Amino acid sequence: MTTPKRYELEDAQWDRIKGYFPPYRTGRPSSLDNRTALNALLWLMRSGAPWRDLPERYGSWKTVYSRFRAWVSSGLFEQVFLELIDDPDMENLSLDSTIVRAHQKATGAKKTPNVWSKIKLLD
User: Fold this and answer.
1) CB under 8 Å to 74, separation ≥6 — which residues?
2) Angle, CA of 12, 18 and 20, to the nearest 5°
3) Most confidently modeled range among 16-20, 24-28, 88-92
4) Nearest by Cα to 76 from 18, 31, 9
5) Is the pTM above the cut of 0.85?
6) Closest by alpha carbon to 20, among 85, 65, 67, 80?
7) Rounded Cα–Cα distance for residues 91 and 99 (Å)
């Protein structure tokens, strides 16, 4: 088992979802396999970098983008999500009442009319 680089899937994670990815069908075979393309997408999402800043180890950003669009159109990510939904990753979970704020009117409190609209100006 190899140690994955930052933001990449581990072997066990890839083994769970690799059956959902479509096999190569027509034309010239791509030099970019599905796992590398998915790892490139994970790197982009986690780093927040633009497509053109994709590291060279993942291949051409255009190829990764094309693969991403095809997977979105086919509904692949929904299938993978449904497979992995029962195994949440709690590594980055952080809820605290100091960061979850709502305006008082968002809680259903009674709305009071504007005080200034009731005051009549004297001439």
Assistant:
1) 22
2) 140
3) 16-20
4) 18
5) no
6) 80
7) 18
- Tokens matching residue 82: 């449904």
In the chain, the amino acid numbered 98 is T
User: How far is residue 35's CA from residue 79's CA, in Å, rounded to a whole number?
Assistant: 16
Which of 11, 33, 9, 4 lies closest to 21, judged by CA?
A: 33
Conformational region of residue 11, where left means phi above 0, alpha means psi within -120 to 50, and beta covers everything else: alpha
Residues 65 and 35 sit within 8 Å (Cβ to Cβ): no
Query: Which residue is associated with the tokens 């034309």?
Result: 27
* Alpha carbons within 13 A on the beta-carbon side of 12: 3
